[in-house]
Design brief:
The chain contains 2 helices and 2 strands; from the N terminus they run E-H-E-H. The chain is of the alpha+beta class. A two-stranded antiparallel sheet has the order 1-2.
Length: 79
């Protein structure tokens, strides 16, 4: 049984993703001795809810449930 870690998240737009990547590039040397794991900028996201481990075969069944939540959310803009 293959599991996937599932979560509901917001991905930053390209401008914000670039700004965050620049910030991380500046911070990495300062924290070189710390046990941190830096992720690639294409994996940047803001996790809103962690769903947990879901069997890959069940992901297609879980996704429509999230669709019922999405219409009630207001649009927002990154500052």
């Amino acid at each position: 049984m293959e599991l996937a870690r599932c979560f509901l998240a917001i991905a930053p737009d390209e401008l914000l993703r670039g700004q965050l990547a620049n910030l991380c590039a500046t911070l990495q040397p300062r924290f070189a001795s710390e046990p941190l794991r830096w992720v690639a900028s294409e994996n940047y996201h803001l996790t809103l809810a962690f769903i947990g481990a879901v069997r890959r075969a069940d992901i297609a069944a879980v996704a429509p449930c999230l669709g019922h939540v999405m219409p009630g959310l207001e649009r927002f803009r990154y500052c």
